[in-house]
Amino acid sequence: MQFGRCFEEFEVGAIYKHWTGRTITEYDDTLFCMITMNHHPLHIDANYAEETPYKKRVVVGTLVLSIAVGMSVPDVSGKAIANLEFENVKHLAPTFHGDTIYAETTVLDKKLSSSRPDRGVVTVETIAYNQHGEQVLSFKRRAMVPTHELAEAQQRALEAKMEQRKRGPVI
């Protein structure tokens, strides 16, 4: 299984359907709220949420974003040098406990770096759907990814380092 892509492997217009889906539980949502200190009652107080238009707790949007980003890593940024930018994050519909999120990413643009030609910047848009096929989130991001040449050089350096560790310290 491939984990990420090098610059040459991205094609503008390509669509990656990320596998597998992720069902968001009440535990996931509550823990994420506590870890990130988002204590808004819509996310953690069932009595409060009953009085809102949704009539129940809503999964915190940054958890849905984090899951969609994570789902895209094997296809998009598994080899990335850096995520450079996230933009146009749109929460299109609420997500509730028990909903399953699926995502797909479209390659919008790619440009080889003029100052460092061993890497390039890829722009993608990811859309997350729930189990009913309703779009719940969309965002764009830019990631810096290596060319095949740089990725191979990085792999050789890692292998040499691992081999040196096997042999032990030089005295």
Structure description:
The structure is a single chain. The chain is α+β, with helices and mostly antiparallel strands. The protein contains five helices and five strands. It has helices at 26-36, 41-44, 46-50, 61-72, 148-167, and strands at residues 15-23, 82-91, 100-112, 119-129, 135-146. It is globular.
Comma- or semicolon-separated keywords:
single chain; 171 residues; alpha+beta; five-stranded antiparallel β-sheet; 5 helices; 30% helix
Sheet-strand content, in percent, reads 25-35%
Low-confidence stretches: none
In total, how many beta strands? 5
Can you give the mean pLDDT?
94
Structural Rg: 20 Å
Shape: globular
Q: Report the span from N to C terminus.
A: 40 Å
Give a quick account of the main beta sheet: strands, pairing sense, barrel closure: 5 strands, antiparallel
Helix content: 25-40%
The SSE string, one letter per element, is: EHHHHEEEEH
Strand order of the largest sheet: 1-3-4-5-2
The number of helical segments is 5
Class from secondary-structure proportions: alpha+beta
